[in-house]
Amino acid sequence: MTEAEVNPKAYPLADATLSKTILDLVQQAANYKQLRKGANEATKTLNRGIAEFIVMAADAEPLEIILHLPLLCEDKNVPYVFVRSKQALGRACGVSRPVVATSVTIKEGSQLKPQIQSVQMAIERLLV
Q: Which of 10, 36, 41, 47 could form a disulfide with 82 if both were Cys (CB 3.0 to 4.6 A apart)?
């Protein structure tokens, strides 16, 4: 997918290297049971205040089905980022279906904490 084909509303969009890092972390989070899959569950984690960060797919059709999430993220000060492909996001989540939104959740004493913090920093750098 070229830059032109991505919906301009899907901001901030991760570049290829950051996307790979994010999807790797999503995959690890799935193994550590620190992942919620789907727009509805991502919304729930935000409302409950247990979201570390939100990953959304820029090719969700129509994109508006997930555009309430950035607003909630801004309210709750949770970093959020778009990746290009819902297929890739679904694969990283360990499901056979495309996934348009996921939330990596907070867990006490998690071994993923350092990776989560580095990804949060990278996402916040995108927004600057």
A: 10
